[in-house]
Automatic annotation (TrEMBL):
Organism for this UniProt entry: Hydrogenobacter thermophilus (strain DSM 6534 / IAM 12695 / TK-6)
Residues covered by the Cytochrome oxidase subunit I profile domain: 163-422
Any one biological process term the GO annotation gives: aerobic respiration
Record-annotated membrane-spanning stretches: 40-66, 78-95, 101-124, 145-167, 187-204, 216-240, 246-268, 280-298, 310-329, 341-363, 383-408
An example Gene Ontology molecular-function term: cytochrome-c oxidase activity
The protein's name in its UniProt record: Cytochrome oxidase subunit I profile domain-containing protein
Annotated Gene Ontology cellular component terms: membrane
Alphabetically ordered keywords of this record: Electron transport, Membrane, Respiratory chain, Transmembrane, Transmembrane helix, Transport
Matches recorded under Pfam families: COX1
């Protein structure tokens, strides 16, 4: 079952990469491949949905199963069915796309059914681990973060229920979905932060054989639970109000910023600099995360600086997950296929993401809007250069993702062949 979810996460990463490449080559003036605005926005929904929601949540399930396998019969096929329905709805030219934050939507029964089934499967997996919640008070770092990820996974999906009742279409359908997913989407980011930190320490343990725990880490981990609870105020007030937006910024800044900063200190203090895959993946993840953080602290408006920020921090989670995926496969197979490729992969991917972040940030500072098809808004050569830097970074990032898919896919095939042989 561990490999089933790892296989599904690999499949979702392939889909996210295909959608992302089409979008990136559309936004890069040197290529300008896609001529249809309608398909552009459908593919944009597909890229965001599979890269931020499906890929990261399926790998979270793979990590949970790696730490503690389960034998549920409903969740695995439901997860696959949800993914197939979501992919189909993004590929078909039917339904109006709404590019709201966190979980963009295609107004189609197929998309709604896929999202519902996928979330339901994740909820069942989290629910089967409620006994692990007692380890939230543990002084061992990895078990504590594991328990917190289960709690945050449950909170993310349960928050959809009150969000459904407070959401309304005042101001348009896009704002309806913005209200629906604002609080669950923010809780989802805390979920990813908790799993990323756990995986950072898993990689550290594999890189230098040392598992780090301390009273300070155990204390700051609680910030991952305390500050998300502040978001519950959104059920009783206007989430678009200035006060609530400030509360949201504070919850992120203190609830994820402080824990990640403290964990970074412990990780970098104890890491052994070497060319093994876990160490390379860990350092690549840290570097990309802070590229996204620097963009946030440099100041953002509603332009390309926003995707510059979240491509950095979200890609940091992805790179960490890929590094752990390597370790899971190696433990199961006894070796890793194309190990040289595995060592090159996190470096190429992190370089590509950093170029993408730089290009988006530069273009955003000069007024380039986000989620916009075409180049009519380009007024000077500097914006064109910045967008092409982002396009080059996207190509490198896709290459890095492809390298992971190749060695992980080959390793999975080898494992399945060996299993059939017995």
């Amino acid at each position: 079952m561990r490999l089933f979810y790892l296989s599904l996460s690999l499949l979702s990463l392939v889909q996210a990469g295909v959608f992302g490449l089409l979008i990136a080559l559309t936004r890069a003036p040197a290529f300008s491949l896609l001529k249809s605005p309608s398909l552009f926005y459908h593919f944009l929904v597909g890229h965001v949905t599979f890269s931020i929601t499906v890929w990261l949540m399926t790998f979270t399930l793979a990590y949970w199963h790696y730490k503690e396998g389960r034998k549920g019969r409903v969740a695995p096929p439901a997860t696959l069915l949800g993914m197939l329905l979501l992919s189909l709805s993004c590929l078909l030219p039917y339904g109006e796309p709404y590019l709201n934050n966190y979980i963009p939507v295609i107004d189609s029964p197929i998309f709604y059914a896929g999202l519902f089934v996928f979330f339901l499967a994740f909820f069942f997996e989290a629910l089967s681990r409620v006994k692990k919640l007692k380890e939230i008070t543990s002084f061992e770092n990895i078990p504590q973060l594991y328990a917190m990820s289960v709690a945050l996974g449950l909170a993310t999906l349960l928050s959809l229920i009150p969000s459904f009742f407070i959401a309304n279409a005042e101001g348009g359908q896009k704002l309806y979905f913005e209200r629906l997913f604002w609080i669950p989407g923010h809780l989802q980011q805390f979920l990813y932060a908790s799993v990323m930190l756990a995986v950072w320490h898993e990689l550290l343990k594999r890189g230098n054989g040392k598992e780090v725990s301390s009273p300070l880490l155990s204390t700051v981990n609680f910030l991952l639970l305390v500050f998300p609870s502040l978001l519950m105020a959104g059920f009783f007030t206007d989430i678009f109000s200035r006060e609530f937006r400030l509360l949201t910024v504070m919850s992120f800044g203190l609830g994820t910023g402080v824990p990640v900063l403290i964990h970074t200190y412990y990780v970098l203090k104890n890491i052994r600099l070497s060319a093994d895959v876990p160490s390379l993946a860990l350092l690549s993840s840290v570097s990309v995360y802070y590229a996204g953080v620097v963009v946030a602290y440099a100041g953002m408006q509603s332009d390309l600086r926003v995707p510059a920020h979240y491509h950095g921090v979200v890609s940091a989670v992805s790179i960490a997950f890929m590094g752990l995926g390597y370790s899971i496969l190696k433990e199961r197979l006894g070796y890793i296929c194309w190990e040289r490729v595995a060592k090159l992969q996190p470096v190429v991917l992190s370089m590509g993401i950093n170029l993408l972040v730089l290009g988006f940030y530069m273009a955003g500072r000069m007024g380039a809007p986000r989620k916009t098809y075409g180049f009519e808004y380009v007024m000077n050569t500097k914006v064109l250069i910045a967008l092409n830097i982002a396009g080059l970074g996207s190509l490198m990032a896709v290459l890095g993702g492809l390298l992971f898919i190749l060695y992980a896919g080959q390793s999975l095939l080898s494992i399945y062949k060996h299993a059939k042989a017995y």
